[in-house]
């Protein structure tokens, strides 16, 4: 059984979907903990499913590296096979990558490498794109630049707003993330092939 720790920064709607998936007996992974870089409302989802939570507040440290060291210590305590960034709105420092890569994956609301960065949905609309997408990637030291494990196109309707498009993308993101985790657990995806 694949042991997963999920890291969030906000409301955790994708996290809740993953928690629901992990409840099914045939899902080959279990979420052993959910962590955040701030007091995040998404932690309540974990509590609803009786999953332990932790917070490593970014603002409590003098540098990214010190925060990263504390995060490494916390993550190591859960002996996770996989770390999932689900709405974690912070680049991980190198010391976290050194400790866990390539066992860190992330979802992104675009068809990477198109529209990387924190405003992917807004950027796609501003560009007048007819479609964007959802991606699941291996996290590396760049901004949404790691190897793509799965991605799918999502149509943008004329005049569609950012919130509506984000909701449409999240539906695809959730499905892709669950499938990627399943594929990692069953060996269909071998993360060691992505070792830097």
UniProtKB/TrEMBL annotation:
- GO CC terms in record: cytosol
- Site note Raises pKa of active site His applies to 144
What protein family is recorded?
Answer: Belongs to the GART family.
The record's function comment reads: Catalyzes the transfer of a formyl group from 10-formyltetrahydrofolate to 5-phospho-ribosyl-glycinamide (GAR), producing 5-phospho-ribosyl-N-formylglycinamide (FGAR) and tetrahydrofolate.
Q: Which one Pfam family would you cite for this protein?
A: Formyl_trans_N
The UniProt annotation places N(1)-(5-phospho-beta-D-ribosyl)glycinamide binding at: 12-14
Q: Name one GO molecular function term.
A: phosphoribosylglycinamide formyltransferase activity
GO annotation terms (biological process): 'de novo' IMP biosynthetic process
Know the name of this protein?
A: Phosphoribosylglycinamide formyltransferase
| Residues that, per the record, bind (6R)-10-formyltetrahydrofolate | 64, 89-92, 106
Which pathway does it operate in?
Purine metabolism; IMP biosynthesis via de novo pathway; N(2)-formyl-N(1)-(5-phospho-D-ribosyl)glycinamide from N(1)-(5-phospho-D-ribosyl)glycinamide (10-formyl THF route): step 1/1
Q: Could you name the domain of life of the organism this protein comes from? A: Bacteria
Q: Give the matching InterPro entries.
A: Formyl_transf_N, Formyl_transf_N_sf, GART
| The entry's keywords | Purine biosynthesis, Transferase
Q: Quote the catalytic activity from the record.
A: N(1)-(5-phospho-beta-D-ribosyl)glycinamide + (6R)-10-formyltetrahydrofolate = N(2)-formyl-N(1)-(5-phospho-beta-D-ribosyl)glycinamide + (6S)-5,6,7,8-tetrahydrofolate + H(+)
Q: Kindly identify the residues recorded as the active site.
A: 108 (proton donor)
Q: Which residues form the Formyl transferase N-terminal domain?
A: 3-181
Q: What is its EC number?
A: 2.1.2.2
